[in-house]
Design brief:
2 copies of one chain form a homodimer.
Chain A: H1 2-8, H2 16-32, H3 39-46, H4 50-56, H5 60-80, H6 82-89, H7 96-113, H8 115-124, H9 129-156, H10 165-186, H11 194-207
The first copy, chain A, binds a DNA duplex (30 and 30 nucleotides) through helix 4.
Amino acid sequence: MSDMIDTLRHDEKMTPKQIEILKAAIELISEKGYYNTSTSEIAERAGVAEGTIFRHYRTKKDLLIKIVKPVITDFSASFFAEQFVHQVFREKYGHFEDLLYAFIKNRFEFAQSNVPLIKILLQELAFHPEIQTAYKRAFSEKVYPALNQAIDFYKQKGELRDLPNETIIRMVVPSVLGFMMTRFILKPDQNWDDEAEIKQTITVIMGGVGGT
Amino acid sequence: MSDMIDTLRHDEKMTPKQIEILKAAIELISEKGYYNTSTSEIAERAGVAEGTIFRHYRTKKDLLIKIVKPVITDFSASFFAEQFVHQVFREKYGHFEDLLYAFIKNRFEFAQSNVPLIKILLQELAFHPEIQTAYKRAFSEKVYPALNQAIDFYKQKGELRDLPNETIIRMVVPSVLGFMMTRFILKPDQNWDDEAEIKQTITVIMGGVGGT
DNA sequence: TGAGTATGTGAGTGATTACTCACTATATTA
DNA sequence: TAATATAGTGAGTAATCACTCACATACTCA
């Protein structure tokens, strides 16, 4: 729970009540969706007067944006920042599989600590142009270039097939996302051997499902 | 557009106004979501008095269910019915790749004719237990057994790796879904060579992205 | 034709919505 | 301490919500 707020950390200082408002809003919106969650409900769960919400957030939508934007930034930026891309070329990840493992592991842990936030992002992405814009920008400016560089690098080393980069991305990303959605949203209660599942996912991405 | 209504075909005869209501509801809900679409809006777009909606559908939710349920049934049942599963064992699809091609092609065409309905299904699945139940039942009763049989069959023929069936399903389904979502929802306007994309998707599913 | 039924209407209802504002309480700084 | 700013309150508001119901119209079949 504190993870979620960490992710949301804005530069400004927040009052205790403001934190309670964010926590309540995240809980309720991730469960019932933005349009089916009322500001009076949020106030009640946060133990706060309804007016207090609007003291900190101009509108209900402003509250949603303030919740979702840091998730987009964090998800796309943090891992694809210098540390990561440069490490690729410093041979930290000798094989594409090593990179893939680090990538999945990293995003897996992020997802694990932020299930409600990611649920909100996925669910509301469809309905709010502001969120779509922010997401597209983050992807095309941060994620896509980083992926592109890395793929080119490993293609050159002969570790990747000579497929269009877009195709490779379109095969790798859903495989990883599909695993995480099954893991955290569809069947969160199942007994998972996460380490084994991650390795198996990598195996299949690399070698497909085809037989000998 | 008429495709959508075809998918919805209930046994009972529908009046022209009822059809207009369904069409309007599908349009609006797929664009703005269930909770952000009001019955007055639906009535207005359908060219109908608001009371008429409730003459045919007991509640607003009833209207949603009547829209979504046939999609679940159609999507899961039609292709996995006898025709398909039996054809597998009659050697109609000699190789797993052939089956995969027929499968993707079939679901691709279904998706193409029903984009708004599938959008509604995906978006509202998260919030309505009734829909979740219907979906889970359809999957576990129709889709999963059919896939299981087919996978066992091709494993025995040595055309599939000896991975757990669940793993194979968890790798194949997101790849196909990922392609379709990119194709119809994320980038519907891009120039697509559908046939080539489908074949490439199959290639990657079978052989992974790994190099020689 | 006439009686009965199915379909369609739209003004009306109480509940709920996001948001406001005059006010109080607390913290900050002069 | 006095003055000012910030944080918190909750009753109030106009708009909108899903849904009802008395009534009008159109269709069916004896």
